[in-house]
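Renewal narrative, Specific Aim 1. Our central claim is that a sequence can be written position by position from structural information alone. The example that follows is taken directly from our test logs and has not been curated for this report. It begins with the structure tokens describing the chain, in the order in which they were read.
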């Protein structure tokens, strides 16, 4: 028998099932996203604008790729401050929730025993080496982007065009004392009219998604007295 036959792997059905059950956020095939007439083998090929975020990036696929997306990074940092103050938690509370297995539902699936951060990394079909070798950087990305998305969702759920900030928290049901300024570029009447529609559009991009596990874990970390989000 030829030597190459020795290298043919023996199929493990359970291993195969586990391998393909991890990813939930995929990169679109180049055949779908590249401009007409562009070679798929060209490393510098351009994706059609229809498949790219225009205002804000969520997750690793488009993070820091364009200057116009980087403009949202300072807003993500300040929003994290509002998020921590609103729920009276520390940044350590959020990081601990993502690097441990505590607080997760006990299930037969062995994937549930993995740290949350590893499961978040596994959620992406194709991570760049930058993220695979920089767990701290990936953790930071998940916290900034996750809290920013939760704030956007909160704003969309309970705000109206005449308020500068939600009067009632969508997640706690209590009065929200952490108001944004009336002239806030995002969380204001102006922001809702002229910016939030573009942010919502970017949130629908397939390559611009966050794992639902991230949002659930962050909410469970800041709402310990409320029923767990499952």
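The sequence written for that structure reads:
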């Amino acid at each position: 028998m030829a030597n190459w036959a020795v290298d043919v792997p023996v199929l493990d059905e359970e291993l195969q099932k586990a391998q393909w059950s991890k990813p939930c956020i995929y990169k679109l095939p180049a055949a779908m996203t590249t401009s007409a007439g562009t070679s798929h083998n060209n490393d510098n090929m351009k994706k059609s604008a229809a498949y790219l975020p225009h205002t804000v990036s969520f997750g690793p696929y488009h993070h820091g790729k364009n200057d116009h997306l980087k403009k949202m990074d300072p807003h993500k940092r300040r929003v994290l401050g509002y998020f921590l103050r609103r729920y009276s938690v520390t940044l350590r509370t959020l990081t601990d929730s993502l690097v441990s297995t505590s607080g997760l539902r006990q299930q037969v699936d062995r994937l549930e025993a993995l740290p949350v951060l590893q499961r978040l990394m596994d959620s992406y079909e194709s991570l760049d080496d930058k993220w695979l070798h920089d767990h701290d950087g990936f953790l930071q990305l998940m916290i900034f982007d996750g809290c920013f998305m939760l704030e956007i969702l909160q704003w969309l759920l309970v705000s109206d065009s005449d308020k500068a900030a939600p009067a009632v928290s969508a997640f706690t049901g209590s009065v929200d004392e952490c108001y944004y300024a009336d002239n806030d570029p995002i969380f204001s009447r102006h922001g809702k009219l002229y910016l939030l529609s573009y942010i919502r559009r970017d949130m629908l991009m397939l390559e611009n998604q966050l794992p639902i596990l991230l949002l659930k874990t962050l909410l469970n970390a800041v709402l310990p007295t409320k029923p767990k989000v499952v």
